[in-house]
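Fold it.
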Amino acid sequence: MSGSNKPVIVFDTSGLNNLFDDPEAKLLKIGLRSAYFVRQTETNLSEIINTTDTDERHRLLDGCRSLLSAGDCIYPHHWILQKLIESYDGDPQGFDWQRIDVQFRQAEDMIARETSIDEVLSQQNRDHYKNTDREFKSIYTDARPHFDKIFEATSDPRPTIPDLLERFKQDDGVLWGFAESIYKKVGKKSFNRKNVRDFYDKCPPFRALILSLFVALYERCVRDERQGKSYRAGGVDLFYSAYLPYCNEFVTHDPKQLQALQMVAHLADLPVSVRSFDEFRKVLMLVSVPIVLKGVTNQAQIAAAIAQVEKMLAPDVVRIRYTVGTDWSGEEAVHFRILLSDAASKPRRLREVTSRVSTVIYQQIDPLNSWGLVPYLRFRSQSEQADLKEAAWA
């Protein structure tokens, strides 16, 4: 699921907004980076780009940027599905959805640098989202009267979600119509009913998205609106369902999205916990406070760990100095100043040496997991320091 052994967490944008707005945001982010691999989504980025207030948009992007070092960003749901269908279409027997790379490196760069994000893009994004939401709602609004007539013609109660799903999964059921209409847009060579059902079984992101459309149909066309739990999430909120297989935990502050995606996860048999932000926050605070306290009391341990690493990396590394403070975004950080020997700083060796030094520091000291500190590394040669004579590097 990721290159990390930590549980993977994905936030709906409402969850990210609450995280960044929280009075204890700094503390929560320390715990988050320490305990989780934070997987951001293209949908998060797009919804933040939609923000009309420029200052607020920059603030939210700053928050996303502060989490990049603790995770990655993945493609929009429709790109993910396209890549998955293309892979199955090319080799149905050898298909493995978890082997398909969905990391969206261009989005990571956009978050890191805020490149290409301006008012023009923001307006274009808002227009696209409005049109998508309008089309999504109209499909079900137009269909509701037809379903009402069916139920008004009988004295039987309206079906529950499990009952309706059982009917829809029959040989000619509506569920397979959903699945086939999406699959055949991409899967040309392998398109037939048998393969679509096989793909549904083998590909959790596809299965989750199809079931989210089913939940939308149940909520907007079948459910008695005077009774029971509401699953009336918007289209974009429902499409987060395709991200559920790519995480262990999903967090939202939208109660209807929460209920809808909990139902999708249940129906799709996904091993993911879909939780409210408030529930998640309570648990995270129990993680965050001890990390911060440990960071305050363990300065001596940091110094001891660095002294050990200096010995491991000699003679290429002459010495390592550090400062514990904050980074440009206000996050708790440790800034390493690494003085290299002139021999290690030669062009033919520099890349290899800095890569090895970085790896050793991340693995042996591990500031993020050990103390909740985001690490930053700077390198300088002995000759450079002899010319600059900066006390901080001495």
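The longest strand covers residues 317-326.
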